[in-house]
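Troubleshooting log. The previous structure file for this entry was overwritten by mistake, so regenerating from the original sequence record. Sequence copied from the archived sheet and checked twice against the printout by T.R.
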Amino acid sequence: MPAVTPIRALQGRTASNVEKGFANGTTSQEALRQTQLRALGPGRLAPHPGAPVQLRAADEEAEVRALTRGTVQAAMEVLAGIRPVHQLARRLDPRCLAALQHRAALIRREITRTGNPALGRLHRNSIVRSVRICEVAEGTYEASAVVVDDVRARAVAIRLERSKQVWRVTELVIG
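Regenerated output below.
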């Protein structure tokens, strides 16, 4: 028979505001504000009372690394012809998106023109092996990735900038 915690033992065990780290006599609004201030981290000021608090990712570098990995993988799939380029429209700025679309069109045109089977294997089964990131300024990261496909290994360089709480790729160079 499994062990069961009696309900009587749990009744009346709600944590008071003092146990939660709030001062005596704080209202629920003040308690919420104190929780939001703790979530912001040390040294960061919250906006005026009543305004929503915008929280950042716990680890910004991990977020940028994951975005880089996903963007590079998607870009390689666009070049392979297995992903439509418009799926990257929200992540890439218009200039990068146009350059990627142009390169994918050139690859497709060359495959149909020559019929070379080696070109057909180009960019197929791409896997992002490693990602390195470096913060160059507040809200700006540069990253590099190593991508291996059926034919060769290549390097990809990327620059991400935060604009309006969204990361955008402003530079994308595929070797």
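The chain has five helices and four strands. Archived copy saved in two places this time.
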